[in-house]
Design a protein that fits this description.
7 helices; 5-stranded mixed sheet; binds fe (ii) ion; 268 residues; alpha/beta
């Protein structure tokens, strides 16, 4: 809570959703979501700030928005049969590299840091999908965060050895609010392996009704997955594999040379 207040006080850009969150959750009596569950208040802080510069004003982002809205409109409302077949995205460890402090640029394009001419090294991946509750209803306004290492396996974190050698053109962390159709989208990198781990992207999703999921996404078919302890532990029932394995495909219509994947986040 202390971290939340400090962060909020420093940010004048409060969204309508933040107002709802403050009124309904932080100022309401009785039990509410466990703010203490959000490590050091980072997530709570992120929850209420407006995300300045969240999406760079590019043709690409506008195209992605149109694609997202088009797909989302076609999928709402979700059928009860669909809801019954839903398998939740399994919770997985946050790991040691959630940002100790948020970078100056926290928008949904991790490949391009605001104010820098260079583009991050590595293979571009468009990661997008919907946030869905286990009841089959989409969850607009969910804050989705991702973080990952750069193209050579180095995180932007004080615990990371060799951090000074990292590719400073990679943002390493991004966040965005799911839109009215529950859709989120990031431009990031195809994840790479580092010692002890198969390639993965970390994520958190915090819904407006106080649910918090921490998980990780993997590259489908990567032979290192089956030797990765975190990956193996996450798959405990049929259907969970598809929740965490990203099927990557070329996306020439979105960005030349880039990959894309569609990953729904199902909050159990
Ligand atoms: Fe990691």
């Amino acid at each position: 809570m202390k971290g939340f207040l400090a962060f909020f006080g420093a940010d004048n850009h409060t969204s309508p959703f933040a107002g709802w969150f403050i009124a309904k959750v932080l100022l309401s009596p009785g039990p509410g979501p466990a703010i203490g569950d959000t490590k050091d208040g980072h997530l709570a802080a992120a929850f209420v700030c407006k995300l300045p510069g969240m999406t760079k004003p590019s043709i690409l982002s506008r195209r992605l928005m149109l694609i997202g809205v088009g797909v989302g409109v076609g999928l709402i409302p979700l059928s009860s049969a669909f809801a019954e077949s839903l398998v939740p995205t399994p919770a997985q460890t946050e790991g040691p590299f959630y940002p100790a402090g948020l970078p100056a640029d926290t928008d949904s394009d991790l490949v391009q840091v605001r104010g820098q001419a260079a583009r991050a090294m590595g293979e571009v991946l468009h990661l997008q999908g919907r946030v869905i509750g286990i009841d089959g209803r989409v969850r607009p306004g969910t804050l989705v965060e991702i973080w990952q290492c750069e193209a050579r396996g180095i995180y932007d974190h004080p615990r990371q050895s060799g951090r000074d050698r990292r590719d400073a053109a990679f943002q390493g962390y991004g966040r965005m609010m799911a839109d009215a159709e529950g859709r989120y989208r990031f431009r990031t990198l195809k994840p790479v392996a580092y010692p002890g781990r198969t390639p993965h992207i970390h994520l958190k999703a915090a819904t407006g009704d106080g649910r918090l999921l921490t998980s990780q996404f993997y590259v489908a078919g990567d032979p290192q997955n089956e030797r990765d302890g975190v990956f193996r532990a996450a798959i405990r029932q049929p259907g969970q594999r598809e929740r965490i394995e990203m099927k990557l495909a070329p996306a020439p219509g979105v960005e030349a040379g880039a990959l894309a994947t569609e990953m729904d986040i199902v909050i159990g």
